[in-house]
Design a protein that fits this description.
This protein is of the alpha/beta class. It has a domain of 148 residues: Rossmann fold (3-Layer(aba) Sandwich). The protein is built from six helices and nine strands. Helix 1 packs antiparallel against helix 2. The protein binds S-adenosyl-L-homocysteine. S-adenosyl-L-homocysteine (SAH) binds next to strand 2, helix 4 and strand 4.
Length: 219
């Protein structure tokens, strides 16, 4: 048995190294982000039947018509979030299985995450316990409304695409803070980086992306 476990460990170490090289080739530069992708066990977030593909650079199904994000997208959004240094508090919308949340929890003091599907909230909590992440707080709710009681946030990362930027998220961003959000209809969304300044908001497009839609209300 122990031998089997070692075998899996070695295979996944090789595939993790390969994933990190791919992300580097695709333009991810932050050493911190690349190390986090290398050291975060993505296989524990997905069904065992898909475990052999855990370190492929693709989105994978997690049930409920949802996916665990593509590692490149997670790395790209995380890197964009770090443009102004390490945030103290982060709000994530769309916890899913919690992979991105765990990566954020290694960079920020506290991570607050909102998910509309209750079963995923429970699954994510189990994953956080298994990885001993104690600075993550998850809530079942509608991410369009943010998490007002915990605002303002130094950074907000949204993992599902609304048709327009929800006003509550702009309001809950601290001055100097940054919001990373995909915006647009299905299959063709722009990934925006929005910085709150003393005068207002500065917006920049990072990329074209394809996220699951952000749905109104709770699941
Ligand atoms: N962050 C995840 C990916 C999540 S996929 C990862 O690391 O892989 C997007 C998630 O957003 C889904 O779980 C979906 O249920 C959730 N979602 C969609 N609309 C939402 C809303 N209005 N509020 C909160 N979560 C929402």
């Amino acid at each position: 048995m122990a031998g089997d476990f070692r075998g899996i460990g070695m295979t996944s170490q090789r595939s993790r190294d390969r994933l990190v090289s791919q992300l580097r080739e695709m333009g991810i530069q932050s050493k911190k982000v690349l190390e986090l992708v290398r050291n975060t066990p993505r296989h524990i977030f997905i069904d065992e039947a898909l475990a052999s593909r855990a370190y492929d650079n693709t989105a994978l199904p997690i049930g409920f018509n949802q996916t665990i994000s593509q590692p490149y997208i997670v790395a790209c959004m995380t890197e964009a979030l770090l443009a102004d240094g390490l945030p103290e508090t982060v709000l994530e919308i769309g916890t899913g299985c919690g992979y991105q949340t765990v990566i954020l929890s290694k960079l920020a003091k506290k991570v607050y995450s909102v998910e509309r599907i209750e079963a995923l909230v429970h699954r994510a909590r189990q994953n956080f316990r298994a990885l001993d992440c104690r600075n993550i707080f998850v809530r079942h709710g509608d991410g369009n409304l943010g998490w007002m009681e915990r605002a303002p946030f130094d950074a907000i990362l949204v993992a599902a695409a609304p048709l327009g930027v929800p006003p509550a998220l702009l309001e809950q961003l601290a001055s100097g803070g940054r919001l990373i959000i995909p915006v647009g209809g299905s299959g063709h969304q722009e990934l925006l980086s929005i910085r709150r300044t003393a005068e207002g908001y500065e917006e920049r497009r990072l990329d074209w992306v394809s996220f699951v839609p952000m749905i109104e209300g709770m699941g």
